[in-house]
Design goal:
Bound molecules: 6-O-phosphono-alpha-D-fructofuranose
Helix content: 25-40%
Oligomer: single chain
Number of helices: 8
Strand content: 15-25%
Distance between the termini: 77 Å
CATH superfamily of the largest domain: Fructose-1,6-Bisphosphatase, subunit A, domain 1
Number of domains: 2
CATH architecture of the largest domain: 2-Layer Sandwich
Number of strands: 15
Length: 350
């Protein structure tokens, strides 16, 4: 019997996989070569270039003067700025200059959005990003990441205050992150599933690794800084007591949101950064941390919540708004929310 559809040999499959680069994948994802598809593919290619430049710098950081450590400045978040924060922030700006694509960049490191005037008449896209997430890990060679979201500019931004960015995360066109770990990975979604790529330094290309990643409905991991235990509302202490008393849970907390999120995306579980007495809205920023990851996790079948509301429905009142973040497997996010809602019910009857 002649096989009507000769199977691809391993070699052919491998070759096909090696040729599925990020830019090709984006176009395939959009099933079109429209102007918007080409734009998004080109933007993702620029983001990939930024990732390669940052990964290269990180891989040599311990060998070079003036790469690690602090600048001595404090950013808009009130945090001490690392030299890598500044470098990575500027890399994203530079890769989009002359791109004709991105008119504005809104970053954790910049109080106001950065405008690229030569792009603005044509480029109607805004990049929102955290150039180095987890920079406290940089000097000790533990994984860090970059987080990004792409939005379409809506209306005129006449006063440079980017008020059109103060919208729910459901207006994101695309979102993703770059994980600088033992290998450099890029994970993204343009609303058609979540896909991961591994940087092949010998090719200088991000090569497709996993398509349509689905987060388990439940997982064993809970990821939270328990050092804040007594700063939380009682409901979060209730959740921690629950996982302490029930079999099948394990704690993992790396100090960089991206590493903790990436583990949960693959293995299931929940990451939480609740509000505290000093920071009732929590520490993590909405527009370039929580919202992009919420977009991704919902695309992967998971959930992201403030404790009482979906992250993607939260409308910020300012560019650097913070939100409490509970994100991961849908059953585990729902479990945390159940403790929050129980305490709200109890208060209501008092
Ligand atoms: P803490 C890094 O500074 C970051 O913004 C996230 O990447 C990380 O999850 C969190 O802060 C860690 O904060 O208070 O536990 O050190």
């Amino acid at each position: 019997m002649v096989d009507a559809y000769p199977q691809l040999t391993d070699r052919d499959t491998l070759l096909d996989r090696d040729c599925t680069t990020l830019s090709r994948h984006v176009l395939e994802q959009l099933h079109s070569f429209s102007a918007e598809a080409q734009d998004l593919s080109a933007i993702m290619t620029r983001i990939a270039l930024a990732g390669k430049l940052i990964a290269r710098r990180l891989s040599r950081a311990g060998l070079m003067e003036g790469v690690l450590g602090f600048t001595g400045d404090t950013n808009v978040q009130g945090e001490s700025v690392k030299r890598m924060d500044v470098y990575a922030n500027e890399v994203f700006i530079s890769v989009f200059k002359q791109s004709g694509l991105v008119c504005r960049l809104a970053s954790e490191e910049m109080e106001q959005p950065y405008y690229i005037p030569e792009n603005c008449p044509i480029g109607r896209y805004t990049l929102l990003y955290d150039p180095i997430d987890g920079s406290s890990n940089v000097d000790i060679n533990i994984n860090v990441g970059s987080i990004f979201a792409i939005r379409q500019q809506e209306g005129e931004d006449t006063d440079g205050q980017a008020q059109d960015l103060l919208q729910s995360g459901r207006n994101q066109l695309a979102a993703g992150y770059i994980l600088y770990g033992p290998s450099t990975m890029l994970v993204y979604s343009i609303g058609n599933g979540v896909h991961s790529f591994v940087l092949d330094p010998s090719l200088g290309e991000f090569i497709l690794a996993d398509e349509n990643i689905r987060i388990p409905e439940h997982g064993p991991i809970y990821s939270v800084n328990e050092g804040n235990f007594w700063q939380w509302e009682e409901s979060y202490r209730d959740f921690i007591r629950y996982v302490h008393r029930h079999e099948g849970y394990t704690a993992r907390y790396g100090g960089a949101l991206i590493g903790d999120f990436h583990r949960i995306l693959y293995q299931g579980g929940v990451f939480l950064y609740p509000g505290t007495g000093k920071q009732p809205d929590g520490k993590l920023r909405l527009l370039y941390e929580a919202s992009p990851l919420a977009f991704l996790v919902e695309q992967a079948g998971g959930r992201a919540s403030t404790g009482t509301q979906d992250i993607l429905d939260f409308v910020p009142d300012r560019l650097h708004a913070r939100v409490p973040l509970i994100i991961g497997s849908k059953n585990d996010v729902a479990l945390v929310e159940s403790f929050v809602k129980e305490r709200i019910r109890e208060k209501a009857v008092l």
